[in-house]
C-alpha cells in the first residue's frame, strides 16, 4: 500500500498530468522581517510533508536575534496529525530557548487547520493569531 500523497496515481500507475509530485504538495517559505521570522506554509501538511515543516521551523528557532517565530498556516488546505505533532514539538523547542518567546501560529479561521487544533485541545497550549500583524504585535486570538 502506498502512503497518501505518493507520486503514483491512486490506482498504482505512473503519474499523469495534473497529479502533483510529493514535493509539490507543500510549499514552505521563510520570510525574514525586521520584527519576526515567518515560516509561511501552503498546501497539505501530512505524513510526507510534515518533515519539511519541522525542519523549516527548527531552523527558524535557531535564530539568535530574539525575533519571534511565526508559523503562517492560513494557506494550508489539509492539516493532519503529523502537522499537529510538529506544532507541539516546535512549541516545546521554542520554550527551551533562552529568552523564551512562544511559537506564534497564524491560523485565522482556516477550518482545515483550526478544527484539528481545537479538537485535540492544542488551542489551549499554542499561541494562535488571526493574522501576521496580530502575531507580531502579540494580540491574542479571540
UniProtKB/TrEMBL annotation:
Transmembrane segments: none
Pfam family, one: STAS
Single GO term (MF): anti-sigma factor antagonist activity
Residues in STAS domain copies: 26-139
UniProt family annotation: Belongs to the anti-sigma-factor antagonist family.
UniProt-listed NCBIfam families: ant_ant_sig (TIGR00377)
Protein's UniProt name: Anti-sigma factor antagonist
Species per Swiss-Prot/TrEMBL record: Pseudonocardia cypriaca
Amino acid at each position: 500500500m502506498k502512503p497518501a500523497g505518493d507520486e503514483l496515481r491512486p490506482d498504482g500507475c505512473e503519474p499523469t498530468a495534473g497529479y502533483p509530485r510529493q514535493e509539490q504538495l507543500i510549499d514552505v517559505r521563510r520570510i525574514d522581517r525586521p520584527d519576526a521570522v515567518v515560516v509561511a506554509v501552503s498546501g497539505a501538511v501530512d505524513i510526507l510533508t510534515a518533515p519539511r515543516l519541522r525542519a523549516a521551523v527548527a531552523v527558524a528557532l535557531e535564530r539568535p536575534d530574539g525575533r519571534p517565530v511565526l508559523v503562517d498556516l492560513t494557506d494550508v488546505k489539509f492539516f493532519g496529525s503529523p502537522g499537529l505533532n510538529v506544532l507541539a514539538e516546535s512549541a516545546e523547542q521554542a520554550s527551551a530557548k533562552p529568552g523564551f518567546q512562544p511559537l506564534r501560529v497564524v491560523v485565522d479561521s482556516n477550518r482545515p487547520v483550526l478544527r484539528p487544533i481545537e479538537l485535540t485541545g492544542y488551542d489551549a497550549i499554542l499561541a494562535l493569531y488571526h493574522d501576521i500583524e496580530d502575531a507580531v504585535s502579540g494580540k491574542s486570538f479571540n
